[in-house]
Amino acid sequence: MLHVHWKNNQINRYPYVYLRDNCQCPKCYNSLLLQRNLDSISEVDLDVKPKAVEMRDDGKQIHITWPNEHISQFNSAWLHNKKLPESDDLTGKMKLNKKGVEFWNKSMLQGKLVRFNYEDIMTKKSALFEWLHTLHSVGIALIEEAPSGMKPIAVERLAKRVGYVQDSHYGHTFDVNAKFDANNLAYTTADLPLHCDVPQLEYYPGVQMLHCLKQAPTEGGESIFVDGFFIAQEIKEQHPRLFNLLATTPTPFVDIGKDEFGDFHLMNKRKTIELDELGHIVRFAYSNHMRDYFMDSPVEKVQLLYQAYLILSQMMRDPVNMIEYKLSPGEVVSFNNSRVLHGRRGYTITGEGNRHLQGCYMDWDLVNARLRNLATVLGKTFED
Questions:
Q1: Other C-beta atoms within 10 Å of 133: how many?
Q2: 3-state class of 37 per DSSP?
Q3: Hey, what domains does the chain have and what are their CATH numbers?
Q4: Strands across the sheet with 223-227, in order?
Q5: In angstroms, rounded to a whole number, what is the distance separating the alpha carbons of residues 106 and 5?
Q6: Which residues in the chain land under pLDDT 50?
Q7: Which of 23, 208, 368, 379 is the S-S candidate for 28 at Cβ 3.0 to 4.6 Å?
Q8: How far apart are the first and last CA of the chain?
Q9: Chain-centre distance of CA 241, in angstroms?
Q10: How far apart, in whole angstroms, are the C-alpha atoms of residue 280 and residue 269?
Q11: How many whole angstroms separate alpha carbon 51 and alpha carbon 66?
Q12: Residue 150 CB burial class (10 angstroms; 0-12, 13-18, ≥19)
């Protein structure tokens, strides 16, 4: 194993099999494609040891000669960027939030939503980075002065500024207004309960944008938002047994109807609280009106599962945990659909017209890819 001693007295270790697999020479690695040229893992020698190891360029480069005379060179920047954890990060399991992710409730965010200008996002890389970074860290942001009457529409233009729109069975983009033949609660004037969109999809959307073209002229129509990650943290602290149940039990979701692409019958199961290997929360999936009547749980756990759902619902609907905001025409609310639950106060249609929003989705893989690229170009820091 190679031991590298840094100027700050830190020591990092690199297994030789790891270094051989990651050889940066032109035969092994394509620097234009940033990919391996060879199927190196199929020929890996678990016990490989170098024939010789030399430091060159005043300690800025390691030169390794392998038993078959193949030569690998690693500069200090590569070694520093690719250093391995010295042990499992058990401290990470004590906290739900990843580094840079901020949980919130009403007292932390009501009246304090971060705002961006539409034209700035469309023309300035710095504004684009800050908007996407806010979605990553806080999970919600407002965009002002978005134009209407354009094709493509404003939300599609924003998505294309990042990369592309994530299509769904509702179409490339969608309109949210009251319809006589509504196939979704969102297309009525009734209260829309807190939920995440389309958890019945295997690859459900990561980011949602809603552009207000016309707001309800009467009382009602306010948008409601709750941080699902904050709710998960509260449940973990107050009801650890129920937290474990929600983090291990899949909830079936179903959606049957007809829309952009004809008839559909969508089904999927996902855990309400999804954690990564270090115990950080990465997704929160909740939609009571899409929850299937079938429960994929042993009969002896059903009562406890309903208790978990009840407490979850009570926490989400507690006014101290929700923020309200009535969108004005020209405003776009963007939010992490796999974290932030959204809903709407009911409203009444009058002779002055119907409330009308236009929306679309983006995928988190795409957003994170754009963030990494912008961080490199702008010299910013981004860790996902």
A1: 20
A2: coil
A3: 2-82 (3.30.2020.30), 106-378 (3.60.130.10)
A4: 192-195, 340-344, 223-227, 322-325
A5: 47
A6: 89-93
A7: 23
A8: 29
A9: 26
A10: 20
A11: 5
A12: exposed
Instruction: Please spell the DSSP secondary structure of 144-179, one letter per residue.
Output: E----S-SS-HHHHHHHHHS----BTTBSSEEES--
DSSP element (H, E) containing 344: strand 340-344
Contacts of 169 (CB under 8 A, 6+ apart): 259, 260, 261, 264, 266
d(CA 246, CA 283): 12
Whether residue 314 contacts residue 286, with contact meaning beta carbons closer than 8 Å, is answered with: no
Q: What are phi and psi of 334, to 5 degrees?
A: -120, 140
Which residues fall within 8 angstroms of residue 103, CB to CB, at 6 or more apart? 96, 97, 227, 229, 230, 233
190's tokens: 């009734």
288: CB partners within 8 A, 6+ apart: 193, 195, 313
Contacts by 367-376, CB closer than 8 A, 24 or more apart: 367/132, 367/135, 367/136, 367/162, 367/163, 367/206, 367/207, 368/136, 369/163, 370/128, 370/132, 370/162, 370/163, 371/129, 371/132, 371/133, 371/136, 374/125, 374/128, 374/129, 374/132, 375/129
Burial class (CB in 10 A: 0-12, 13-18, 19+), 84: exposed
* CA quadruple 101, 105, 108, 111: dihedral sign: positive
For residue 229, what are its two tokens? 């990650």
Q: Side-chain half-sphere of 51: how many Cα atoms within 13 Å?
A: 8
How far apart are alpha carbons 75 and 22 in whole angstroms? 12
Structure tokens at 39: 């199927």
Backbone angles phi, psi at 67, to 5 degrees: -55, -30
Could you give the CA distance from residue 169 to residue 160 in angstroms, rounded to a whole number? 19
